[in-house]
């Protein structure tokens, strides 16, 4: 390197050093308050986007709110006859944000608790609205519902680890009851201060509890229209149940709010960005707290050490849900329990509401084509709303989706489009040109040789089908919920217990005999050949038991005769 090149290099370095020195001196001249102001502005921008606070956007739009996009079948009678008349659903919600959740004060009222025992021995709390104790909005709700009451009943299924004390559930229950409806929150197993009493836990696709509660309410109050509202995981359970039941459900109409739809897609989504990971961690902590309440059973049925070390919902499902629910893998659980595969089979009016900026349930999971193909489903999507937020007003006094659901169900109730349960004919009572032996009743032969007649459809052990089941109801327990939403550690005392009639062996024998006789008469009237064929099958299958009995009876008599003869001799 020449002398000139070295000198030029050293001079450029000195110039750079001087430039940085001048820049540093200039920065020192800026007051510290300006730096604090810049940091505060940066912090506000981060919080504004992180908590999805849309005040500035609404300000520039003149507080007209964001438009609601409706997805439905072009020939849908539910849209034409019901949703098209709902102004709130077609309106524009204002200032929806999760940030306002911290400042919104939920309504204050008391529940009337009913403990409901399920067919497998589990117990859940059904919390009925009693009345409001807050100023201004007091209204009266009956403590008892008569058998012939025609007042609509709204069944609410909460989200993951939520119960009747959750803020958004209180908003929904209070505003629905103000319309004059009876509202009942069907708490999940192990929540609401009720202990787990069986080895069965709820999960994202567990529909049996909802099925038993709905059938029980329909049986107890047959003249009261039933409407169901599911939120978050509760919405997934509700849609899955409606798809499973089809036209057999007694529910007249339903609404699903912020459903995850596809659990597998949701699992991939919730681990992508920082905001999703924060929600994932928060929900996991809630699941761990739930497991902690029922540690003895989880320790026996699941991997307790894995539950304590879980860092995500997927970890918890791997160590707990899959083991308790007998799922092979977590992905298998997610695939089997996703409601997106069931929405096409929904046969009742269903309004679905989802937010495109939901930080928990991604828009990628929404089954747009399936909703559009089903004439009974109307899907409403908004640009903003978060997950179960949709708060309105600076003080977050109201929730847009609550008003939209109440309006929709109210219009549906006064319309001719309410679903009416399709009565399923009893097996063996339908007329057909086919052979009766192909239609049942069939013969079940157990290992001990006992024979029983059964229909060609399996029946569920349900409180609706027969009062003489294991279902019990403990009524009229009042639970005054605190504003903080704290849950009691023990089940409240009960004022009255309604025990079901005893199921005696004589009653069971009479019922079985009457059932077999009825089926026999049906067969004898319709097809003599089938009757004789059935008799032949019955004789052949029961011969080992009958033959053994005859040998025992006549063998004993023969011995008595021989002994008497020898004695005379």
List the helices and strands and how they pair.
Elements: H1 3-29, H2 32-50, H3 55-60, E1 68-72, H4 77-81, H5 87-90, E2 109-117, E3 123-132, E4 153-157, H6 167-177, E5 182-186, H7 208-220, E6 226-231, H8 233-245, E7 251-257, H9 263-269, H10 274-293, H11 295-301, H12 304-308, H13 313-325, H14 330-337, E8 350-355, H15 368-373, E9 377-382, E10 391-392, E11 398-399, H16 400-413, E12 442-445, E13 451-454, E14 473-479, E15 496-498, H17 505-526, H18 528-568
Parallel strand pairs: 4-5, 4-6, 6-7, 7-8, 8-9
Antiparallel strand pairs: 1-9, 2-3, 2-14, 3-5, 10-11, 12-13, 14-15
Derived from helix and strand composition plus strand pairing, the structural class reads alpha/beta
- Looking at how many chains there are and whether they match, the oligomeric state comes to single chain
The global form is globular
Tally the helices.
18
Rounded to the nearest angstrom, the radius of gyration is: 32 Å
What is the count of β-strands?
15
Strand percent estimate:
5-15%
Q: Termini separation (Å)? A: 144 Å
Order the strands across the largest sheet as they lie in space. 1-9-8-7-6-4-5-3-2-14-15
Low-confidence stretches: 131-138, 426-505, 522-531
Helix content: 40-55%
Mean pLDDT: 76
Reported for the largest beta sheet, the result is: 11 strands, mixed
Organism: Citrus sinensis (Sweet orange)
Protein name: AB hydrolase-1 domain-containing protein
Keywords: Hydrolase
């Amino acid at each position: 390197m020449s002398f000139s090149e070295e000198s030029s290099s050293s001079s450029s370095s000195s110039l750079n050093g001087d430039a940085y020195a001048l820049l540093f001196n200039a920065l020192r001249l800026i007051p510290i308050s300006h730096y604090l102001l810049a940091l505060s502005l940066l912090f506000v921008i981060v919080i504004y986007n992180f908590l999805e606070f849309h005040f500035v956007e609404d300000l520039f739009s003149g507080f007209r709110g964001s438009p609601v996009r409706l997805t439905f079948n072009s020939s849908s009678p539910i849209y034409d006859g019901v949703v098209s008349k709902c102004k709130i659903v077609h309106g524009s919600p204002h200032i929806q944000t999760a940030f306002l959740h911290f400042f919104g004060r939920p309504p204050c009222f008391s529940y009337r608790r009913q403990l409901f025992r399920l067919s497998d021995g589990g117990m859940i709390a059904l919390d009925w609205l009693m009345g409001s104790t807050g100023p201004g909005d007091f209204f009266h709700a009956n403590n008892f519902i008569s058998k012939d009451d025609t007042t609509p009943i709204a069944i609410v299924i909460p989200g993951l680890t939520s119960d009747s004390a959750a803020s958004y559930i209180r908003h929904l229950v209070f505003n629905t009851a103000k319309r004059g409806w009876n509202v009942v929150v069907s708490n999940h197993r192990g929540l609401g201060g009720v202990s787990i009493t069986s080895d069965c836990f709820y999960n994202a696709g567990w529909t049996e509890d909802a099925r038993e509660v709905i059938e029980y309410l329909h049986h107890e109050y047959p003249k009261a229209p039933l409407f169901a509202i599911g939120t978050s995981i509760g919405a997934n359970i509700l849609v899955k149940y409606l798809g499973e039941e089809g036209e057999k459900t007694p529910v007249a109409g339903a609404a699903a709010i912020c459903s995850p739809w596809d659990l597998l897609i949701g699992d991939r989504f919730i681990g992508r960005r920082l905001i999703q990971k924060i929600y994932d961690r928060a929900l996991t902590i809630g699941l761990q707290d739930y497991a902690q309440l029922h540690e003895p059973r989880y320790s026996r049925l699941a991997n307790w050490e894995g539950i304590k070390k879980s860092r995500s919902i997927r970890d918890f499902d791997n160590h707990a849900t899959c083991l308790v629910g007998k799922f092979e893998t977590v992905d298998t659980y997610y695939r089997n329990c996703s409601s997106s595969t069931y929405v096409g089979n929904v046969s009742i009016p269903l309004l679905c509401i989802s937010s495109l900026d939901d930080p928990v349930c991604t828009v990628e999971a929404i089954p747009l084509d399936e909703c559009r193909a089903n004439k009974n489903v109307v899907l409403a999507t908004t640009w903003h709303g978060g997950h179960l937020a949709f708060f309105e007003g600076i003080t977050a006094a109201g929730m847009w989706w609550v008003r939209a659901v109440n309006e929709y169900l109210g219009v549906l109730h006064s319309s001719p489009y309410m679903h009416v349960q399709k009565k399923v004919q009893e097996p063996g009572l339908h007329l057909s040109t086919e052979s009766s032996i192909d239609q049942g009743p069939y013969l079940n032969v157990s290992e001990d040789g006992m024979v029983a007649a059964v229909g060609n459809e399996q029946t569920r052990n349900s409180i609706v089908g027969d009062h003489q089941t294991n279902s019990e109801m403990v009524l009229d327990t009042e639970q005054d919920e605190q504003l903080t939403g704290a849950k009691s550690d023990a089940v409240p005392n009960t004022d009255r217990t309604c025990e079901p009639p005893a199921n005696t062996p004589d009653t069971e024998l009479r019922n079985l005999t009457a059932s077999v006789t009825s089926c026999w008469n049906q067969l004898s009237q319709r097809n003599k050949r089938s009757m004789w064929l059935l008799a032949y099958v019955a004789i052949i299958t029961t011969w080992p038991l009958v033959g053994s009995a005859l040998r025992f009876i006549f063998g004993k008599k023969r011995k008595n005769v021989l002994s008497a003869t020898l004695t005379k001799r």
